[in-house]
Amino acid sequence: MRSIKNNKPIIEYRTDFLDYLEIEKGLSDNTQKNYSRFLNKFFQWLTGNGWQNLKPDRLSPAHIAKYRIFLARHIDPRAKKTLKKSTQNYYLIALRSLLEFFIEKNITSLPPGKIKLAKDKSDREIKFLKLEQIERLLLAPDTSGQIGLRDRAILETLFSTGLRVAELAALNREQLKIADPVKNLEVAVMGKGNKVRTVYFSERAARWTKKYLDRRQDMDSALFINYKRGAEKSDASRRLTVKSIEDIVKKYVKIAGLPVMATPHTIRHSFATDLLTQGVDLRLVQEFLGHRNIATTQIYTHVTSKQLYDVHKKLHGGRKLKN
Predict the structure, then answer these.
(1) Are 151 and 275 part of one and the same domain?
(2) Which one of 26, 30, 210, 261 is separated from 254 by 20 to 30 angstroms, measured CA to CA?
(3) Cα dist. 81→77, 78, 84 in Å?
């Protein structure tokens, strides 16, 4: 990256910031475009208020408070109503990332923690399955045939690893070195922003995946493939698409009679929630999920707070003390 002058107005750091996202953070083109779009709203707001020459060290909490009021009252021209709190947060997250960039480059400005996100329970509510519901889902496929074996392996893998559905679809057979006898398995995957992380197949997930692979007689490199009629005669890869995997999960949710319309991402939520309820540290859950920012992982904490309260109430030694 070229040298950066640290006495420019905030709006003149746009190019430097985008270079930073691309080169140092490794974010995809689409993610960079989103950050640019959300940050442009802040730059336009500064200009509209006559603050186009405002430098980073002059940015104050008062500016941030006024910007938040602007976002809360801003009318979305397409929806013809004010921005949802989740949408407001996209703009605030982009601004917080700019402040993190300033810190990285030793440019004096507000700490990123001064950017508080809008709170909205409806936006932050997540759906997840309880363990007994997960078990019903995993047992739903008929594993007497090839398709059922594949689908059982998909469901087991999703819950064991917490993979995003796109990450699951991208897996190749060569990535899995399943021992005999089967043991737990570690696999390196490429996640968002080309970030590599390790995911873990339980012995159970590895065993069902091996059963599925042992029945495969094709040479396709993809781990999970389709079985459409005539597909084996084509030279094209039979790799399952993200949509196909979503449809497979939806199918077994119905077969299992689950009250929640679960998706692959619901299983990912269930994976994370299960770890937290077992006492796993939030930072470790962040690593398991491949989140860049701990704030993303924190959406799960409110799910477990009621359970933690019940445990504390039941087990904390303070209840035995005399008044």
Answers:
(1) yes
(2) 210
(3) 7, 8, 9
For the question of residue 63 being annotated catalytic, the response is no
Considering the candidates 14, 211, 250, 265, report the single residue annotated as catalytic.
Answer: 265
Catalytic site includes residue 25: no
First-to-last alpha carbon distance for the chain, in angstroms, is 64
Same domain? 173 vs 305: yes
**198 shares its domain with 107:** no
Peptide bond into 259 cis (omega under 30): no
pTM for the full predicted model = 0.61
Annotated catalytic, 192?
yes
19-34: pLDDT as tens digits = 998 888 877 788 888 8
Check if 96 is active-site.
Answer: no
Query: For this structure, is 291 an active site residue?
Result: yes
Residues 167, 85: one domain? no
Query: Is 164 labeled as catalytic in the residue annotation?
Result: yes
Structure confidence by residue, pLDDT tens digits, 261-306: 889 999 999 999 999 888 888 889 999 999 988 878 887 776 666 5
Total structural domains within the chain: 2
